[in-house]
Structure prediction request, 181 residues.
Amino acid sequence: MGDPERWLEEHGDYLFRYARRRLSSDELAEDAVQEVFLAALKAQERFTGSSTVRTWLTGILKHKIVDIIRHQYREVTAPRSSDPDNEDDWEALFDKSGHWAETARDWGDPVSELERSRLREALDECFMRLKPNLAQIFSLRELSGLSNDEICKALDITATNAWVMLHRARLFLRECLDMRI
Prediction:
């Protein structure tokens, strides 16, 4: 299972980056990672070893991130004033008919968002498993949008080599995603 005392050293940076990408806040990401380690310490006897420690910790982190996001959406921030009991501040939140003055933002389709989130996570995991040269060329083409000629010049490779490497990267990602989704 690994030594719990080494979890932070071995997995802390990865978990922080993972949380930071999803929460867009260093503070929230730090809090989430701390909560993960506390939860993992409490639940370490239930860890079966059917996955790696990093995968197990990432699974816990996913749940913590969902909790943080739910909390953010449920939290209503009241206007700040010097007097917390001032009714005018509270009245400003509602229109004359008693409805919210500002409409709530669209939450979208939670099922679709969950599927996109799972796809993103699977793609991140698969991308991390790509050979470095394939990951580099795939990033240049698909993420940076460079043309084949620009890639060939940047990497000092032939056009045929570039196409073969892109094909291999896409094929690997496709197979990897098929196994994870």
